[in-house]
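Handout for the seminar on molecular recognition.
Each group receives one record of this type.
Step one: identify the two inputs.
Step two: read the structure output and locate the region that could contact protoporphyrin IX containing FE.
Step three: write two sentences on what you found, then compare them with the reference statements printed after the record.
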Amino acid sequence: QPILKNWPFLGMLPGMLAHIPRIFDFSVEVLEATNLTFSFKGPWLSGTDMLFTADPKNIHHILSLNFRNYPKGPEAKKIFDALGDGILSADMELWEDLRKSNHVIFHHPDFLNLSLSSNIIKLKEGLVPFLDNAAHEKIVIDLQDVFKRFMFDTSSILMTGDDPMSLSIEMPEVVFDEAVETGEEAIYYRYFKPVILWRLQSWLGTGLEGKMQTYLAAFNRRFAKIISSRREEISRGESKQSVDVLTYYMNVDTTKYKLLKPGNDTFIRDVVFSLLLAGRDTTSSALTWFFWLLSKHPEVMTKIQHEINTKYDPTDLEKLVYLHAALSETMRLYPPLPFNHKSPAKPDVLPSGHKVEANSKILICIYALGRMRSIWGEDALDFKPERWISDSGDLRHEPSYKFMAFNAGPRACLGKHLALLQMKIVAVEIIQKYDFEVTKGHEIEPVPSVILRIKHGLNVTVTKKT
Ligand code: HEM
């Protein structure tokens, strides 16, 4: 029974408890049963009331038509406090300055070249030797971990100019990974706890909150060193040729972007940390689910292989239409960011008729949106890349408020093209050179978190194609 009973004082929490660890599938059931919008009432005075919606009309209204009235809001700022003043949680004028300055660096030809070259080098010097070794030694590897390491190294090169070399046969410990994964889970649970409770846990250093503080402190210390050594390089007149984001923001033009603070280390940390997260976790999540779906759908794999054999041109990956369709289909069913948090600045009425108060919480359920039969048809739960291909064989466009893996409106993802390019480069390399098999009996389920990761990773064995 997806519709929850609203108890005096306790609200819907008693019925919700069992669903908190399986929130993604629950959101599909409840939104299908409630005509795409569901109002959750938390316990009295707990501040955990939320409106869940997967209604494209509401989404279009919130993210585009009435964008000014729907910032992330003060609650999101509290819940995502680890992001500080980074672009993912900033609002209003600060967000505008961050967005415009980000746009400039992300479209700079030197930055795009750095992105391409870092991918090519990481393939040659990281991924291929790693997979060759795994095939030779016949060891089980976790593809999710491999992709996270690949994306961490390439994103770090782009964002900080530094290659942490986390993808190597030795598989070194990655402090960033521990900090981020614990943080993403802790943040997820904050949605269901009164602020006072998670703040207390954080202060006492208990549970996930305590772990997150410890890991984040370790990460911040490491990052502070990277920042101070880059400042020293800059003061010695070095780093002039660097096109990474860290150097860019340390020299950013404050006459154009008045709210940015190039001299402030905390601000620089916030900006770069958010961009590292935006690039690493999303892309690695999408690639992991993609390879898992391919293992379940050999017919799709055969079509992709055929397309690569007949149409692959390393200078023009756009020709791989079926591969693109399969990636879109993966992110429809498994969007790396499963929710988007918004909060009305002023009271409003949504197109679905639901009233929303100022500063209330709205969660756009991206995961549920991709699975609604009323939106995608009776076969909504099937993995069918063909739905993305038109009769003439071109890619079919879907409006972003229906397929919103990359968000929609003025806050749409700034790294969409980089991410798609990167996923295609990695997918082609693996599919051309290796066969892989998912370990029998390996359990696949999403971890309750703000990023859609597989709980126990994706364990596979690889063999090299002859
Ligand atoms: C498959 C990969 C990716 C997916 C699915 C994805 C998805 C998204 C989504 C849903 C948002 C909105 C987040 C929110 O408002 O809470 C977003 C924002 C953003 N993404 Fe991505 N992203 C991906 C890769 C990347 C990469 C590789 C980069 C950069 C290198 C990037 C940079 C950004 C930035 C800067 C924003 C903030 C935009 C703003 O608030 O104005 N993303 N992305």
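Reference statements: The first helix runs from residue 13 to 17. The domain at 13-464 is CATH 1.10.630.10 (Cytochrome p450).
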